[in-house]
Amino acid sequence: MTVHELKQNATNDIGEVNKLLTNLELNPSITHQVAKLKALELKEVVELKQRIEEELTKFTDYLESQNVDMHTNLVTEDGYPRGDIDVLQIRLVRRNINMLRNDLINIIEYSYTLLSNHFDSLNQPEPNGTTSESRATIQYQIPFALIKEIDINGPISTAGVQNEDKLISLGNIHAGNHMKLRSLQNEVIKNEDQKLTLRILREDEGILDLELIPTRKWDGKGLLGCRLQEL
Q1: CB 228 within 8 A of CB 145
Q2: How many helices (H) and strands (E) does the chain have?
């Protein structure tokens, strides 16, 4: 192999490394939005949360592809970098994950503040002295929980809910007051064997309004017959 070919191969290798490192860098548009978080509207904050979760998934998938996690030792017993993995890239990815996790915590906390303010404003008295309760109910459009592992014989299945539907509201509980789903659990228990209004978001069908009766009068466990995962 000639000197020119060796130089060309080295240049190509550097180019491939730079390309891979670029793919593992933080998305600059995300960091820009995080920096101006307090200036974002509620919709923008929700979208930013989703983008960060997608970035976290990308980086954690990369670690899994390298058979390591956030705690795997990257050096040998003698203190040298391991030769079977790309230590530099893994450290970069770990740094990104830690930064994104911190950003996500701040975004979630700020979104709760915005949601609380949003729903408080909807429930303010109208100029004529009446409340905007009916209008607020119509405007509940932000899902806060994913509905999974539905038992086909359970109450929530009977109500017409399907796996992967997203919960927007149940009774008086919505994105602004579910308190990490704790308030939702209390609402279900308080209304056992009674009708509750249920609003869900279904892919390709949009928002659906249903009726649910939480009950233990079926062959399975629990009042709903499903698992809820906070979004």
Answers
A1: yes
A2: 7, 5
